[in-house]
Queue: 4 jobs
Job 1
Amino acid sequence: MQAASIFHLPNRDNEQLKSLNIKSFPNSTPQEETNAINYEVENIDEEISRLNLLKAHYRGRVNELRSKLSVLPIDILLRIFEHALSIEKDQLPGPDGILPLVLGCVCYSWRQLIWSTPSLWTTPSFSARLYSTPELIRLFFDNSGSLPVSVGWWDIVNYKPYEELGFIVRERPEKLRAFRCYFTNEGREIWNLAELKIQTIQMLSSGLLPNLREAKIYHDGEFHDEVLRLPSLRELHWKGFLKLPSYIPIDNLTTLFLEEIQPDYCLDVLLKAPKLETFHVTITSILLRAGISSPHDEGHLISTAFQNRREEVILPRLKYLKWVYDIHPLNRMWTYYLMKFVRLPSLEYLHFASRGSSTSLYVGEAEMELVRHQFLVSMPRLKHYRWFWGHIFNPQGLGYWDDSVQYPLGSTTRTFLSFLPSSVQKLHIDFLEKTAQDCLGFLFQLLKVGNSEGEIVLPALRELSIMGDSSRSVGERGLDLGVFYTELVEMLRSRRNGPPEKWKTIVRLEYFCIEVRDWGLLDKRWSKKGMNQCRDVAESIVGEGLRFEERGRVPQFDESEDEIYLAE
């Protein structure tokens, strides 16, 4: 009797149980009845889940229809997608470059647009992380329609993707526009395997490839394959090898990127590629690493193109030049040859940078200054100039400092500005030393409209960017705004308020940025006095109508508590 009372239910519960209409069987045990109820509960839970999914689907469709993005014109939305995919710049995304598939998962309207626009499928980037299957590779080539495809290859070390890409190239050679390989250390070791090299060469050389315009392969310096014989190449990136192979067809190149190449060969290539429009060179002290101490060492004589040259070389097509080099004496010497003999009448962008502080054993500073002047004045169309101020000029032009030893330099801020063509619209200067702040004050004085010299300096200047240095301790910070703040404000006022009646030809300054690295309002290493000085300068900048940022955010000043915090 006691056991029976365990299953006894009150009358109210019995009535509710009957209303559930649960099927029961005669002579069934309580466990069997429980199992039957569990079965019914599972069925009900599944139905609830199904209805919730259906509800979420319809709610998503309603949200899509109500979304502000859904009312954007198709052409505007397409432009946004093309910008996200870097279609116009023709730059490949990172190793996970399957953005069209990601965008297509956002909503129905996006999916329709993505899958019906071939241009959005022309810049895939495959990697080992994506498990790049042959099906994924073929999907991009098929969806791109008749448009050529630029392929990115990131550390793919198995053979099936290479085989599939090879099949596609053999079937439709016109589809491949660019092939760019990126290998990390692990991937580069596998790339060196002969079989993988051969497959890639066969893939690129299997057809005429009439639309192939670019090949970028980062290698270890022992890449001697003739994969780059293709005459259709227009853009070439080469890194890690002292010389360019003689079989590379550079006659038709319009864009050339060279890294870790001997500087004399860089100059030779510049003269032998008459159609070049973009030339990007980064030269490190590779000659030092090779144990070469003189330009007369065997095998490294002065380039025959410059050894006995007396006439200037005019390159009328070159519009973009980036020349970055370590100030090793030999690198500096070849830079001297570049500036002395090469003239660039159509150049619009110049990034000229030297890293380090060293005198040249072969080129005197006075001669270097002279050819620098001749080099710059030969660019009447120069619009954007970026310069690394590795040698720190003081206002009197006494010299630059290197380990507390002063060398005669003979260059001043005034002569630096006088070198620049009046056509310059964008000026970007990277400073190396703290002592550059003395030059900055003088620089701002000269750029001021109506300066004491009565000169008009860079009348077309629209953008001015100045970067400090972050490799300084607290006692020797990169740039101290307080030192040249007065000159800075006067220059900005004169430039951004528009030209006065006397100087109508001067363009209004539209953009100004000075990034003072390792200089912060919230730096706990500052003394109380130093913190107050920083705050005063920052508040003055804001008072001038300028924007002051620290760590990517705008500082807020709490007057009541005399504290500074960063707004989100």
Job 2
Amino acid sequence: MHDFGYRLDRIRGSHAYFIHSKYPNICVPKHEPIKVAYIKSIIQVLKAQEETR
């Protein structure tokens, strides 16, 4: 489905899709079109932040 290894799940009764991964606090509002490249860029930024610690 998505090639970046992160599952997008819609939480029941919620208006957002949450990325269930090491970063469960990332969510994309349901009314926004979910762009894989956008999510990939968020994950890349988070990984870079982890590496610089």
Job 3
Amino acid sequence: MGRIALPVASTADPGTPPVTTPPVTGPPVTSPPPAPRVSLCAVSTHGSCRSTVGARAVRVAARLDRRATLTLSVQAPAARGKRATKPVRVLSRTAARGTTVLSWDRRVGRRAAGHGTWTLVVTATAGGRSTTARLRVRL
């Protein structure tokens, strides 16, 4: 905690001007940097559901306001009457400020992603803070 200094007047001689002590200040208070901003610019699917596995990809363009680590996770569609499944991390990369394109090959682990509406979760992390953007893609 910082100290508070009060002005002290000298009482020795009435003709002398009062002497004041300067206030004592502590270190400046700094707040943590704000979370990075991430915005999803575009999405495109290459190939169709009936094409070969090598031709399937979902590309997501993410725009960052500063250098951050981008993590792309996918969440499978919920089964009928069930809750959504836990997101699975697909890739993570450090990206510079500006637009970065992330590509998902429509695979979860070693298996091809099935038909349905998948949720792509892009998380940007910088300075201990993170921001998440979600996008739904139908395969």
Job 4
Amino acid sequence: MNSADPVAALLAAWGCPADKAGEMARQLERRARQLAERDGCSAEESLARLLSLMRQGWAAREREAEPPPARPERRPTL
């Protein structure tokens, strides 16, 4: 089992297409290592931050895809 497998499984559970989850996980782990080196923190902390940002982005996209709530009918005032 490679280290990207759990990340890929998590991404797939969040709605990432299964055929893209493995590659996306590898890219995220590579970027996490770069950020860890740059920022002086652990790769795990960087990966957690990246995953949090991705989840927020997907949640926002899901909200945008939902139809807006129906507005109540307004009756003219006399």
